[in-house]
Amino acid sequence: MTNAASTNDTHTGKEESRIFPPSAAFQAQANVSGMDGYQALCDAVQADEQGVWTKLAREQLQWHKPFTKGLDESNAPFYTWFADGDLNVSYNCLDVHLTNGNVDKTAIIFEADDGSSNKVSYRELHEKVSKFANGLRSLGIKKGDRVIIYMPMSVEGVAAMQACARIGATHSVVFGGFSAKSLQERIIDAGAVAVITSDFQVRGGKQLPLKAIVDEAFTLGGCEAIANVIVYQRTGAQLNWTERDIWLHDLVKDQSAECTPEWVSAEHPLFILYTSGSTGKPKGVQHSSGGYLLWAKQTMQWVFDLKPTDVFWCTADIGWVTGHSYIAYGPLAAGATQIVFEGIPTYPNAARFWSTIEKHKTTIFYTAPTAIRSLIKAADGDASVHPSKFDLSSLRLLGSVGEPINPEAWMWYYNNIGRQLCPIVDTFWQTETGGIMMSPLPGATPLVPGSCTLPLPGIAAAIVDETGHDLPNGQGGLLVVKRPWPSMIRTIWNDPERFKKSYFPEELGGNIYLAGDGAIRNKDTGYFTITGRIDDVLNVSGHRMGTMEIESALVANPLVAEAAVVGRPDETTGEAICAFVVLKRSRPTGDEAKQLALELRNWVAKEIGPIAKPKEIRFGDNLPKTRSGKIMRRLLRILAKGETITQDISTLENPAILEQLKEAL
Ligand code: ATP
Ligand code: MG
Predict the structure, then answer these.
(1) Domain at 24-344+423-500+508-518, CATH homologous superfamily
(2) pTM across the whole model
(3) Radius of gyration over alpha carbons of the chain, in Å?
(4) What is the band of 647 on the pLDDT scale with cuts at 50, 70, 90?
(5) Measured from the CB, is residue 450 less than 6 Å from ligand 1?
C-alpha cells in the first residue's frame, strides 16, 4: 500500500459544528424511526448476523428454490451469500408487481432531453422486458453469456439490463460518453457475445452517435466474438448498417409477451461494471444476483425511506453503479415510481433539475456533488435559473453520492433545494460495494454537513492503520469493512489476484475489505468523514491532512466554485500543497490571478490553520474529471510536479483542461 494514512495523524481541521436532527414529522413517518430504531437494527445483526441476513433475504426476495445458508466464508475473501438458492432478478423486479397491486402503477416516468415525457406502468415494463428477453434468446444468447450495453438513458436501456437478467446473461454497461477505444477494451475484457446500443443519443439538444462508435470499436480489432449488435432506434437519422446489426423493434416484433425467467444461483454474476478510473486503470467489478438485489432493495427502504406514493429521481446514468442499484434494480424491486432522465442538468438551461422536480412532483431527489456545485455556480450568475423560481414543495428527501460533498455545497442544497425541510442522505459507497454502505437514515440520524455519518446496520465499517489495527476516534486512517455484506464485489472479472491484492491485502490480514478511501471519525459522535483517496492524504511538515478538508475550506470562500488539492514533493516540508481552483466567475490571469491566489492562501490559513495554506494555487475553467464527474486528482498530482502525463486517461471527460492547468502562475 502506498502512502497510507498513519497512526500519528494530527487532524488540523476545523470541526463542523452544525447539526440537523430529523424533524418530528419526518421521524414519525419514517421506515426507521429515531436512533433507537437504527440501534435496534445494528444490535440485531451484531447478535445474529446469519439470522438477520437470511430473514431479510427471505422477506425481501422471492426464491424459486430456497437457500439453506446465508454467508459462506470457507473460501475467503471469495465470500458467497445464499449460494444454494435460485432466483431471477428480473422476476423480482417485475413479475412480483403483477400480483401485488402495483401492476398499473407507473414504474418509469421518462423525461426526454427535449422536455417531452411519457409513463410506463409495471405491466408495460414487464411486457417490454419479456419481449426483449425472448428476442435475445432467439439470437442464441443464453445464461452466462456477456452482453455489452452501450445505451442512452432510456426506458430501453433499463429494459436491456432487465432483459439480460431475465435470461441469465451477464451485462456490462458502458457509459454512453466513452470512446470507441474504451468500449473495445471492455468488450474484449468481458468476452462479450453481443452489444445492445442505440442509433444516437440525444443530450443537450444534440444528436450524438452511439452505433457509429460501436462500428469504430470493431475496426480497432478484437471484437470478433460479438455476433450481434442490437440497435434501439432513438432518432431514426441516417446510419451505416452491417450484417451483424439488427433493429431492436424488428427483434421484438413477433416475440411473445411471456418469457419464463432463467432461474440462477444467487451467486450468478448479474453484471460486470468497470470502476470510474479515478485512481488508475478501471477494474471489472463482478456482482452477484441475490445478495446484490437484496441490498439494492433494502437500502431503498432504509436510506431513501421509500413509500408507495414517492416519486424517486436518481440523476445518475445507467453507465455507473448508482444507475444500476438506484435506477435499474433497487427502485423496481421496491415497486417505486421513478424518473429516468435523458438529458443534462444545463439544458435548456441550468434550472432543468428544478423545473423537472416541479413538473413531476418529485419527492426524493438523488444527485452528485459535482452537479450541485455547478448548479450553485449557475444560480449565482443568473437569477432566472435560481431554484427559488421553482415550486420544489413536493420534495421530502435529498441525497448525494459520488464524491465527498463540501459542507458549503451541502448547506446550499439543504437551504435552497430542501428549503430546510428535507433531510440530506450523504451516501458513501463504491462500485465494489454494490449499494450504500454509510449514510444517515433520514428519520433517525442527526445530520452533519460533509459527513456520511454512520454505517448502515450490519456494515462493519472501521478505521485502521496500515497494519490493520483499529484507530481511536479523531485519528484519520484507512477505511475498511470488517465483515462481509450481501452486495459486496465477488471478484474482479478475469483477475482474482488483483481482487485479493486491491481489496483484501495481506497487510491487513487478508480478510477485511479495504475501501481505498481515507476517513476519520468524530471524537464525540463517531461520525465518519471521508478525507480523500488513500493516495491523496497529504503530509506537510509531519502533519497529515486529507485533501478534502482543504478543498472544503476553499469552496467555503464565496468566490470559489470548485477546488482540488494535491501534494507534491517539497524539500523543506516533505510535501507541499498545490490547489487547483475554479472560480464562480471567469478564470483570472496575470496579476489578478496572483492577487486572488494570495487572498485564497490567507483564507485557508484562517479557516484551517497556517499549516494548510497551499504553497501554490492554479486557476482553471474546470478541473479534470472522470465522465462520472469525479475529480481526477491523480492527474493533478502529476501536473503539480511539472511532469508529463503518461497514465491511463481513457475515462477522462475533458482532456483539454490539462493544458490549461499545466503552468504555474
Ligand atoms: P476507481 O476505483 O477506478 O479509481 P472510483 O473509485 O472513482 O474509480 P466509483 O466506484 O464510481 O469509482 O466511486 C467510488 C468512490 O467515490 C469512493 O471510493 C469514494 O472515493 C467516492 N465517494 C462516493 N460517494 C461518496 C460520498 N458520499 N462521500 C465521499 N466520497 C464518496
Ligand atoms: Mg474506486
Answers:
(1) ANL, N-terminal domain (3.40.50.12780)
(2) 0.94
(3) 24
(4) confident
(5) no
Ligand 1: distance of its center to the CA of 430 in Å?
5
What residue spans in the chain does CATH classification 3.40.50.12780 cover?
24-344+423-500+508-518
Half-sphere exposure of 205 (CA within 13 A, CB side): 5
How far is residue 329's CA from residue 335's CA, in Å, rounded to a whole number?
10
What is the atom index within ligand 1 of the atom nearest the CA of 405?
Answer: 28
Q: How far is the CA of 367 from the centre of ligand 1 (A)?
A: 14
Of 533, 512, 433, the residue nearest 76 (C-alpha): 512
Q: Are strands 337-341 and 364-367 parallel, antiparallel or unpaired?
A: unpaired
pLDDT tens for 196-218 read 999 999 999 999 999 999 999 99
Q: Is the CB of 530 under 6 A from ligand 1?
A: yes
Q: d(Cα 73, Cα 75) in Å, to the nearest integer?
A: 6
Which run of H or E residues covers position 528?
strand 528-533
How remote is the C-alpha of 8 from its chain's centroid? 32
- Give CATH 3.30.300.30 domain extents, the chain: 541-661
The SS3 of residue 631 is strand
Ligand 1 close to Cβ of residue 363 (< 6 A): no
Least confident of 85-99, 491-505, 648-662: 648-662
**541-661 falls under which CATH superfamily?**
ANL, C-terminal domain (3.30.300.30)
Is residue 433 in contact with ligand 1, taking CB distance under 6 Å? no
Q: Peptide bond before 348: cis, by omega within 30 degrees of 0?
A: yes
Q: What is the ipTM of this complex?
A: 0.99
